[in-house]
Fold each of these.
Amino acid sequence: MSPSLDPVERNENKPPIGIRFLECVKKRRLSYGTHQAIVLIVTFLAYASYHAARKTTSIVKSTLDPQSSEVGLRFVPWRITYSNEPVERKRVSWKLGEGWAPFDASDGTALLGELDLAFLAIYAIGMFFSGHLGDRMNLRIFLTIGMVGTGIFTSLFGVGFWANVHNFYYYLIVQMLAGLFQSTGWPSVVAVVGKWFGKRKRGLIMGIWNAHTSVGNISGSLIAAAMLSYGWGWSFVLPGLVIAFIGLLVFLLLPVSPEAVGADKDEDELDSPNKAGEGVTEPLLASDPDVKQEAVGFIEAWKIPGVAPFALCLFFSKLVAYTFLYWLPFYISQTAIDGKYLSDGTSGNLSTFFDVGGVVGGILAGHISDRLDARAITAASFMYCAIPALFFYRSYGHLSLGLNIALMFITGMFVNGPYALITTAVSADLGTHSSLKGNSRALATVTAIIDGTGSVGAAIGPLLTGYISSKSWSAVFAMLMAAALVAGLLLTRLIVAEVAAKIAESRSQGSTSRAPAAALDV
């Protein structure tokens, strides 16, 4: 190994124990494509578990702070149960009518909003530092520490149930520490995936891969709702154990980069040649392993063209998305649908249709942006379409269960589409900008800046909702529609540039096609 490599690079250039075991069993080196499959699967599971752990709070909210005298918690998967079921049919393990102090008081909704703020504020701040550290540490170790730490503090929140903890500051501190460890996830997984996959069809590939967010939200909702009948503490402990376990898988299996496992694309192509024109296996950044690369500074990363407008757009996009993430189950449980109120468990299950729509929206946004080669136009179009979707969901979602599900699905598609696009393909695009001159040590920093800025909006949205919802849910939806509008407007300059580029490209192609015709006439 060249002496020019720094300690971080020397530490990364060691195959994980699990990779060495697989190669020992197969008695040959794993192919480049096999490593790519491992990266996609492991990072998908890793970030899905992050979101599963993050989602539990929204499911338990209406249990900690019940708004009616009768709250049904009998859970049967996908079966509709209502809050006005006879008391003798309910199976509970604590006094539901009283909620859980201190969240059962008149200011309980505001306290829950403050928990969201604490978690997301620390998450946003930690995101900036995590990106900075991630470009300077072994990402496999860094991600493992973050996942195990997240599991510990998520579980400690649930331990408050059995320990009979009613001190608000206990839950506040635990949430803040959970947010700090959660911030390690996104910059790390995007940086690892970015080192293994090329620009060709990046939007589509990352759109599909980004389904981990919705899969995590859905699985977190189902697990938390299922565990409520055994005591709300289990709704936190079980996801905490899951993410800690997957963190160990990350430590054993995740190859941080092709250099870390000695994977050579050229050698792999000799074994299984690609078709002409295929570039899926080409890494985002082709760097010389013998040349020491300096990590990009925080201010320098902000100056990369496109980083600031997309980061600010994500601020408002995540404000909308995370308000739904943290408050949608609560909103459903407090809204009479077809004249009936749904139980906590059923409300949590129903809210997963928003995330199903998010999966479709993320894939569509990635595919459309690839076909158009226009990230800003795609993201802004989805944000503008989210405005009428939000209006119709608030205005007509209560008329029937079927209409609520359909409108929720459509809203999730338009809200999560640009969010998924910006945090994946756009971050990877900007993290490999030509101004970086092939530096592979910038992906985590750029990703952290964009998602960290977005996370500030993610903290503000749920906080404001906690206060505004006590007076009017219509005002909450007005706030979300205004945020979606601002998110689209922030990309106006980039949209103009993309349109101008398309026009210039069209004219260039037109003049090129006319030239041969003129030659034939001569």
Amino acid sequence: MAADAVAAAMAASSLCDDLEPATVRTCIRDVLAAGAARAGERVVVGGWVRTGREQGKGTFAFLELSDGSCVSTLQVIVDAAVHPLARLTATGTSVLVEGEIKEPPEGTKQNVELKVSRVLEVGEVDAAAYPLPKGKVKLTLEKLRDVVHLRSRTNTIGAVARIRHQLAYATHRFFEENRFLYVHTPIITTSDCEGAGEMFQVTTLFSQAEKTEKELKENPAPSESEIESAKVIVKEKGDAVAQLKAAKASKQDISAAVDILNRAKEHVSKLEERSKLKPGIPCRDDGSIAFENDFFKRQAFLTVSGQLQVETYACALSSVYTFGPTFRAENSHTSRHLAEFWMVEPEIAFANLQDDMNCAEKYVQYLCKWLLDHCREDMEFMVKNYDKSAIERLELVSSTPFVRISYTKAVELLKNVTGKKFDNKVEWGIDLASEHERYLTEDIFKKPVIVYNYPKGIKAFYMRLNDDDKTVAAMDVLVPKVGELVGGSQREERLDVLKQRILDAGLPLEPYEWYLDLRRFGSVKHSGFGLGFERMILFATGMENIRDVIPFPRYPGRADL
């Protein structure tokens, strides 16, 4: 079988003789990790020049090359005889080179370098126009948002990208190891999970209106007289068919006359349809927008959460999760808000609030431990440049049991704080502000905290009402640096209670009938939570602005690319 497989592969490869041979490229991370152990080996590497300088009166050049596989760069040495040096040294130039790994002279900071024997490819740069500066000169993170298509070439955004990748990979690993199924929930929805109303609308009514207005200008709607004239023709053609039948004409003649009649009827139908075309957005008699004319025949939105949909799978497959983009049309310009962000949302059948808290704690600790084990170089970069306590924070959270206290107890502790004045007054019934959350985890307990049993008035309709009729079985995981990292709850599984909670929230029942069906047909106790993925990256890296931990940030006034 093995020989057959090799023969098949060789036969397949022979079909591609007209293509360039594949490039077997070694990533810079692997070269640097092996160090002197790979000295003397010939490799092909590719990357972008961070800094380049000619030396020896133009006889050779040093290039600091990065391919994004790690923070560190590889020093590449190119002789003028190999390639014109002026075409290689500009910051931002891309090169693919072949050469020999060598040990550098003693006293240099590099552990290996590459002596180039062939330059295979070059992507040149107009140095005067290239927006990223050379060497140690840095643009602010705010300025980098103006060149979002190039900012991933910087050390900071590259490190954040690798950390983000590892957190995403660890997320799937954690849920796979705990027997969860990954479910893709819809981005377009007709349900408002949060009940806040701050949703982006999905509609084709505007494009339809523009198309109709253009069409009416080019071909105005028919007048009533035009339609009546067309109807007269239909009557004439109908009479002609009747006369042919009465005269017992041939089938061929009758069939031809019927075809003419049908075309006349179709023309009338099209005229009548066109006469209904009106410029502008279609509205009902009461002035409200006629969404029945929209693409989905009803109002539709970009999702704020996949939770409600993923519950349908939890109520059949037991343990599931969704991980995808969510959207909020909140006109906020703070460093903690985005219009598009990613959420990790597991849902567990046969689980109460205690089970929910246990899962959230295990998951957050798993992520922290994963970064410590698999992203050490990037985390050390963040410690050196942004947050000296970033690694210590990961170590604390990954190894320390989370404190668990009720909302009522949390409010009591905060009200008794002396020597600290909060900007937001603390009283039972408020939604704890970030300053309260951080004080609990950073100052009072100095470790992660889970607050549970929140007032029902500040939480969503789907959270299970407690026996006191004042609180719901909700929980938030609070961590240093960011405050709330996870929000979750036991879901309301009682049909009558859930119906009333929807109505109390001022929401119509009709869009949630499918959600109520989960309670009508085999209702089950279940729980879940949501982790804001960008918040997790903020917590891990110590970065200050959420716009710098997502590849293409969307916020009021900006949706570049």
Amino acid sequence: MDSAKPAPEQKAMEGGEQEALDEMEKKVYKYSRGKAAYLGTLRDKKLKGQLAAREKLYGHSAKAAVQTEKWLLPTEGGYLEPDDEDLEKTYRYQQSSLVGEVDLSSSRKPFDMILPLLGPYTLGYTGNGRYMVVGGRKGHVAMMDMLNLELIKEFQVRETVRDVAFLHNEQLYAVAQKKYPYIYNRHGTEIHCLKEHGKSLKLQFLEKHFLLSSINSFGQLHYQDISTGEMVANYRTGLGRTDVMRVNPYNAVIGLGHAGGKVTMWKPTSVKPLVTMLCHSGPVTAIAFDRGGHLMATAGVDRKVKIWDLRKYEVINSYAARAQSLDFSQKGLLACSNGSQVEIFRDTGGQDYKIYMKHRMVKGYQIGKVLFRPYEDILGIGHSMGLSAILVPGSGEPNFDTFVDNPIETSKQRREKEVQSLLNKLQPETIMLNPNMIATVRPSRKKEKKTKKEIEEEMEDAVETAKSIEFKKKTKGRSKASKRAKKREEEVLKAKRPFLEQHKENDGRPDKKQRVGDEIELPKALQRFAKSRQ
């Protein structure tokens, strides 16, 4: 029997293989180090062989990176792409049309939860994006499993709730209430009352350091270690009351926005701010940090949203817009809320952010907080009439590392991760602007200036040494006593000169003449020439 395959089927297989090869070449080009060098003109055979071997090694490493991506990064992220960029704009797409185009599981994630009597609402997500905690201004607190869309626990604290934040996992979360922050477990049981924090306005949790930070109504910044209960730091900012506070995920530095238009950055081991930036001409209303830690977005009452480069502390871009809340997604999208409208900006290259999507709530809804859900293309919105979630394609990281964040982790995996994170807990001293400085050799410090007494003692020793020098006896009248005394005086002056220069540097203004003033008593013959102080 003839085992040859039919011609159409064989052509289809060849076409599929060709497409796979083309796709492979594109990915290899992504990981390659540019165009290979032309070695035909080289005459040195040894150098030519070395460079050829290196180029071959570069090609193998690019192919290995493509294979690794194929197995470890199976999912690719995508954005909204218009058919015609000149005529069609992505920000004109409505949520109703997006829900109809995505898959079934993604279409179930957007929602609108109307709770008009207990708002406005604030919200927070766990690091893996599975759980959400919400807090209503009038005392409503609830925790939900967003993977299964189930309500785990809700209760009423019967007093004002200003902010909510998860701790290291979904088992514990903090709620900033009327007088003090409280810590609850997932069953709604009160675990702790943190009275030392006072009337907290905002809460932030530093995951790798197990520190809960808060800013209260008196402008005091608190850091408390939740693993030991120790109050690590308590500082007065000195810039008045503020409720604008975010943590930089790159270096765990806390950023505060103040009423004078300044943004300050703090760490728990420094009494004074690490950085003070004048960002706006009016009060700062919102602040957000990029995942990489090098970009910061600020918004102010002066109707400007600014993007800052924290490596140079310079403005990259400034946009005429108002924003009550800002947030960066894992893939670099920036969400801004203004009144009842949400605008999402996307980096088109070179930190040039353009409008990507728009979403308008029902007229009259005032948005309080926007927050991207980790590892999902979802933006959570807390507003005056409840909670909402909208689809934002391309906002979440499509591939997750189970050793870092696992949205589908079991209880055993959660316990193991909790133990490992406690064992690997970083000390507060490791928080700094440039964390790459850790485990490097500290440069030698400049020598401190010597005191006047030390300089005089060293000068006396040098003078004694110079006086004790014995000169060689010379003939023909060159060893006279007067000449030897003159030489000794020259040696003494030479020994004194460096110490006199040090003395002048310590005093400051060494060459300027001292002014004649009333405090200096002049001879009677010169007193009539002194200027009288009026």
Amino acid sequence: MATKVHVGMETEMNGNGRNGVPEIVKNSWKKRLLDFPGKMKRFTGCSWRTIWKAGREDPRRIIHAFKVGLCLTLVSLLYLIEPLFKSFGTSAIWAVMTVVVVLEFTAGATLCKGLNRGLGTVLAGSLAFLINYIATRSESVVRAVFIGAAVFLIGTAATYMRFFPYIKKNYDYGVVIFLLTFNLITVSSYRVENVLKIVHDRFYAISIGCAICLFMSLLVFPIWSGEDLHNSTVGKLEGLAKSIEACVNEYFNDPEIKENQDKSSEDPIYKGYKAVLDSKSIDETLALYASWEPRHSRHCYRFPWQQYVKVGAVLRQFGYTVVALHGCLQTEIQTPRPVRARFKDPCIRLAGEVTKALMELANSIRRRRHCSPEILSDHLHEALQDLDTAIKSQPRLFLGSKKNQTTSNMLALAAAHAARYKQEKDHGVSLASVKTESSAFLEWKRKRVGREEAKENERKALRPQLSKIAITSLEFSEALPFAAFASLLVEIVARLDHVIEEVEELGRIACYKEFNPDDDDISVTCKRPPVDVTKNQLPSHAF
């Protein structure tokens, strides 16, 4: 039986070009070769834009990259210079590894890792040397059993200690280095005679790596975790202030303006409070690293970094209210624009006063001075009073109006729609009697499945319609969304007091200078913090 082949398939199988290569494949490769220069050009441009953006966002990243490169070059000299290599041998690689894992972006992180690594190495080397000293006085079999038992007990105990909250928070990296160094030295001592030389070379190589990292982090363009935490707190206050102002303005703006803003740029409201909601782990990490840093300020005071964490927690609670306020702009049921316009001025004034208070708190933290005594000015209370008066002047919006008849009509319409659907369903239940029993059963089954699908679709379409009719038919449905918006504005004012209290407590503990509108460079009025704040801080470590 002859096999039929389509003309086009036969042509493609035989090939139109030389050596039987299909024309389509040749055209595809030719197109790829022609597009390759353009793709390389686009890739180069995209890479350059990414590199430029990363450096422009934070120029300290470029400095840190050069510092890491310089440190790696310095420790590589232990291998490249012949006299140094004869002194350290292959143990010099530990200096390179130390620089790679220890040198971090901030000085506090480098200190934390460097001191943890140094302490873990010293303890592990000392313990491994002691176990080797005891094991060498035994026979070979007993020595192996003793070393295995020591590795098991020390490994179990050190790993279990990592679950202690205090050790996990401050010394987890040191415990890991302790386990690594102890096992390497202890196990290798069974086959190597001179263990003391191994410990000696490894300790000096790691010490050189840590010393170079600490020198580069503390003395060459240092980047302080405490300053990052301080500046991030200021940025969070300013971001919340901008979010509230943009949210209230957008609520009362024309929808056309809103659409143009959405198309032109990123949502400024979300951008303002996003950093606040995601700040918990960042604040705790920066506070931990800042507690390791030396006192580098002008007056050598130790700032209460844990109080910054408390300020961040209060700001997150404040930010949740801003998120709810932003949600009022995206609800399904909205208050009509003419109704909103009646309350526009007092709401904008109230948001402006809250924004002004948050900006004053941000400036006080930035300049390390106490905030103004008039941060909660009379204008804020006047704005609250004006909003209350405006709401009381529209009692029909909030206390109900003569809409009972309209409500009944709309609900009756929904009920009639549901009854009509049920009646139509009941009329379609009869079966044909002229068909055979089997064909009638199959048709009945098919109609039943079709009716069930129609019933489900009708119910899905009817449910939101009935729900929306019921909601919009409420007497105060026009004012209900605005009532939620106004209550959230008042809640923001109430939570503002907690933010002010925590910022004032921060200024008191950190001994901020007194507020002076004429002179911001006034000297500090106290020499020591008035209270003992050690319980609110992470411990200071010095080795």
